[in-house]
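Exercise 3.2. Students should predict the tertiary structure of the chain below and write it as C-alpha cells, then compare their answer with the key that follows.

Predict this chain's 3D structure.
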Amino acid sequence: MNKQIVAFIQYLKVERNYAHNTQQAYSRDLNRLLVFLQKEGVDTWDHLQTDHLNLFVMNMRHKEISGRTIRRHLSSIRSFLTYLVDRDLLKSNCAISAHTPKIDKNLPKTLDYEQILQMIAPTSDKWSELRDVAILEVIYSCGLRVSELVNLDSNDIDMNEGFISVTGKGSKMRHTPIGDSAKKSIALYLQKIARNNALFINKNNGRISARSVQNMIKKRANNVGIKINVYPHMLRHAAATHFLQSSHDLRSVQEFLGHKSIKSTQVYTHLDFLELSKVYDKCHPRAKKTSS
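Answer key:
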C-alpha cells in the first residue's frame, strides 16, 4: 500500500508538477490514513470501504482535528484513489461517498477605530517612523493585503487623483482610493528618503519585506497596549468592516478589497451584525437585563 502512495507522490511531482509543499501535504495525509488502516486490519486498497473512511474521520474528530483539516485529508484521499482507478489498480473510489464534515466559519479578527488611531500616531519624525505610519495608513486606508503593500512602487500612487494602483491576486489590477490622512503620511515619508522605485524601503534602500511589516505592526500594537496578537490582515479586516458599517454597500466593499467573488466579502456582513448586536445590547432599553 505504501508503494502506491510513493508512486502517487512521484506522479504529482513529475506529471502534475505540484509544488514540494503540496507533495508533502498529500504524503502526510495519505500516510496518516495508512497508519489508521493498518490498525483496522486493512492490508490492500481493494479492501478499503467507505465505512473505514467514516471511521477515519471520526477518529480525527475525537482528536479535535479541525473540520478544515479533515476535509483536506479527504480531498487527498479522493485524488489518490482516483489515481488508482484511472490506472486500473482499483475498481471504484469509495471516498466519493465518505462523510465530509462542515467547516465552522471563523470570523476574521479585527480592530476598532480607536485602536487603529493609537497604532497610527507617530512617535518621532525619523524616516523609519514616518515610513511605518505611512504603511499603517495605506493598509487601513486602502484595505491592502501585506503582499500588495510591499510590492507597491512609487509610481503606483497618483497623489493628485487620490488613487493607488494595486496588483492583487492573480495579477489582477485594481485602482483603490486613498484617504487624505494616508496621502499626508506618504508625503511626509517621501520627503525623508531619496527617490526609489519601491515605495516602502528598508534601511538598506531595498524593498521592505512582508515579514518586516508583520513584525513592525505587532510591535506597535504591543507598545500601545493592545493585548491581542495584531497582524497586517487585521487592518485590512478593520478597513472592510468600517467601510461596510458606514456605506452598507457590499458590492463596493468587494471592489475595494479586490475580491473576485462576493462570497469572500459576505463574511463582513456577519462582522457588521456583531457590531450592531453590541450597540443594541448596550443602548436599547429592551435589551437590558432586569435584576431579580
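Discussion points: The mean pLDDT is 85. Residues 2-97 form a domain with the DNA polymerase; domain 1 fold (CATH 1.10.150.130).
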